[in-house]
Amino acid sequence: MPKLSAGLLVFRSDPSGGLEVFLVHPGGPLWARKDEGAWSIPKGEYEAGEEPLAAARREFTEETSFEPPDPPFIALGSVQQRSGKVVHAWAAEASLDPSRLRSDSFSMEWPPGSGKQREFPEVDRGAWFSAAEAKRRIVPAQKPFIEALERLCAAGGGHPLG
Is residue 129 domain-resident? Predict the structure, then answer.
């Protein structure tokens, strides 16, 4: 059974009426020098039997310290990442200040083989990107979430909810 993950793709309109999405960059030394193809929607694992949207909302807060956006939530489907993990995503509209992001932390041995445990943030930063830029920055397997949101915006006259 693959691991399950759920997350929120937060969006807003930019001043010119274009689409912007909020992505997060993973924390820790393994991601410190990676940028393009490393960003993600705020997401996290959940257990079978847990309601995925509830998990997405919980994980959004754990990774960003922001309260999840208010409904409506727009289902964007699911993707399977290279690791085999299945990620479910929903879009929601909000405007967040990335400078206020605070993430939960995790512990890992660093440097490897040192026997020393160090704490690192799950997410070290967040940022708003145009849809085009976000598709370059996001983990490739999650790109379909942005594309689905773009299709919904096109069908809704510039806004996914029509």
Answer: yes
Residue 103, domain CATH: 3.90.79.10
Domains of the chain: total = 1
pLDDT in tens, the chain (162 residues): 889 999 999 999 887 878 999 999 999 988 888 989 999 999 999 988 999 999 999 999 999 999 999 999 999 999 999 999 999 999 999 999 999 999 999 999 998 999 999 999 999 999 999 999 999 999 999 999 999 999 998 877 667 766
d(CA 5, CA 70): 20
Q: Look-up: residue for tokens 């020098």?
A: 33
- This prediction's pTM: 0.92
Alpha helices in 14-130 (DSSP H): 52-64
C-alpha span between 130 and 119 (Å, rounded): 32
Long-range contacts of 112-121 (CB under 8 A, 24+ apart): 120/27, 120/28, 120/29, 121/27, 121/28
- Count how many Cα atoms sit within 13 Å of the Cα of residue 144 in the half-sphere of its side chain: 11
Residue range of the domain that includes 18: 4-155
